[in-house]
Amino acid sequence: xxxxxxxxxxxxxxxxxxxxxxxxxxxxxxxxxxxxxxxxxxxxxxxxxxxxxxxxxxxxxxxxxxxxxxxxxxxxxxxxxxxxxxxxxxxxxxxxxxxxxxxxxxxxxxxxxxxxxxxxxxxxxxxxxxxxxxxxxxxxxxxxxxxxxxxxxxxxxxxxxxxxxxxxxxxxxxxxxxxxxxxxxxxxx
Length: 189
Known about the structure:
By secondary structure, the chain is mostly helical. The chain has two domains: about 1-105, Orthogonal Bundle (Rna Polymerase Sigma Factor, Chain: A), CATH 1.10.1740.10; about 105-189, Winged helix-like DNA-binding domain superfamily/Winged helix DNA-binding domain (Arc Repressor Mutant, subunit A, Orthogonal Bundle). The protein has nine helices and no strands. Helix 2 (about 15-40) packs across helix 4. The N and C termini lie far apart (about 55 Å). Residues about 95-110 have low confidence and may be disordered.
């Protein structure tokens, strides 16, 4: 039988550090994915993922259980992403778009597949650029809802804001994203 997050936290607090390793393995993919989508750079996402779990381990005694562990760990990750983005923006020699570049796709044999793959990469690049231009609070909500598949209530809990604010940020952000994507698409024609 698989232990719950709260049971693993209890075991960790009683000195069973392997229990925390199970929590890390359970949540690292989601935290890395969130950080990668928010930051757009694999190395930064790996750093944030590692820092998230180190911070969670150091502060595990402060976890009261009022919220789910997932909400708590997502909040830590988002705070670290925000800090990293603020630092990146304070360095004028590094444009935000540079932080949003990701690695290329795997090579494919078929010419038709290659063309489709290149087109998908271009679309993904436009979406990343458009997302990068949104205010961070809108970008975070869009990523958590559309990419991470979180529910409005979960996002509200993570961000410690009302559900109505989450919905407003999502719908306003999606409208702005649509405009930005149309502008980017027109710019390349």
